[in-house]
Design goal:
Mean pLDDT is 84; it is low at 149-169 and 368-374. The two termini are 38 Å apart. This protein has three domains: 11-70, Muramoyl-pentapeptide Carboxypeptidase, domain 1 (Orthogonal Bundle), CATH 1.10.101; 90-152, PGBD-like superfamily/PGBD (Muramoyl-pentapeptide Carboxypeptidase, domain 1), CATH 1.10.101; 169-358, 3-Layer(aba) Sandwich (Aminopeptidase), CATH 3.40.630.40. Helix 8 (197-214) crosses helix 13. The protein has 13 helices and eight strands. It is 42% helix and 11% strand. By secondary structure, the protein is α/β, with parallel strands linked by helices. The chain has helices at 11-22, 38-50, 61-70, 90-101, 115-127, 138-146, 156-167, 197-214, 231-240, 276-293, 306-310, 326-332, 335-352, and strands spanning 176-181, 191-192, 195-196, 218-221, 245-252, 262-267, 297-303, 315-322. The strands form two sheets. A six-stranded mixed β-sheet has the order 4-1-5-8-6-7. A two-stranded antiparallel ribbon has the order 2-3. The chain binds zinc ion (ZN). Zinc ion binds at residues 182-183, 189, 197, 250.
Amino acid sequence: MEPLGPGSRGPAVADVQAALRSLGLLAPGEEGPGEYDRATELAVRHFQQVRGLSVDGRVGEETYQALSEARWSLGDRLLHHDPERPMRGDDVTGLQERLLELGYDAGRADGIFGRETEAGLRAFQRDYGLTSDGTCGPSTLRALRQLGRKVTGGRPQLLRQSASFVDSGPHLIGRRIVVDPGHGGGDPGFTAGETTEADLVLDLASRIEGRLGAAGATVYLTRGRHQDPTPEERTRFANDARADLFISLHMDAHGSEHARGVASYYFGTGSGTSSTVGERFADLARREVVARTGMLDLGGHPKTWDLLRWTRMPAVRLDCGYLSHPVDRQLLLDARLRGTIASAVLAAVQRLFLPAEADPPTGTFVLPQRGALG
Ligand SMILES: [Zn+2]
């Protein structure tokens, strides 16, 4: 293919932009449609950086291939072994990782559905009483998703219960949630190489927005890429939206490279007065993130910050890791890991609005994706 770059235009560019949007790297309406403008170039650079490609802001063969692979997430399509044209994509990687995690030899998690992946999948299907056809479809996906790391060890009753719980489809229709990516515009926040905290939390916010939206919630972001609202503007926005929940996202950095981990903050004076719902959500969100990413748990803390004080709904700030810590930084720069954090936040929101008796253990609750299951 002819490489695309600044100045290119046409359907191929629009296609690249659609891929970038679906990855949450380009906000809708930000780019000139079909025009390879500055916003498109920045999004491509961002993508290349997080995927470990050489960063030139242009879409050649390699970047194009990576973009089309990244568009697939597990559940988007049936996966099987096609010896003529092997299926490739992030969904294949997801399947391979899941099988490996469950102890099946699915080959290397390379995103290519080969013979070994098929063998691993068939073995899994046999063990779990599914049709051993080597095709990953809705029932296999459901089984894979239900087998959380915490629900192993032969407790079929529990497995069945949590399966029917997910099938009953707890949803967030009618809930209004404001997601607040910190910084923005002229304020980059902390930086990690070419990437800024402002960009990373915006990417994370878009992923959370997508997941909450898929679960039926009405979601608003407090800013786009080029804005940096004041705390007052952010809280007024949430109050005007009559939000049920306000989630502010940040990442940290510290002079000591040893500082790492995830912390959450809710409104409270530390001497009794606090938002109980805020405290509960701060706890849920942090624990879900910690359980799914393995990052250090730095606890939840009451604060009287303006952002938490002026909001008239439960408000929580989540600081998801240290850009100054080598391991945290590597995790946060990985788009897939940010997807995991977004899923953790979704699970926390689901749990917040669920009756306590239906509440599944931390780290195990996975919402079916749109059209992906059954
Ligand atoms: Zn920040």
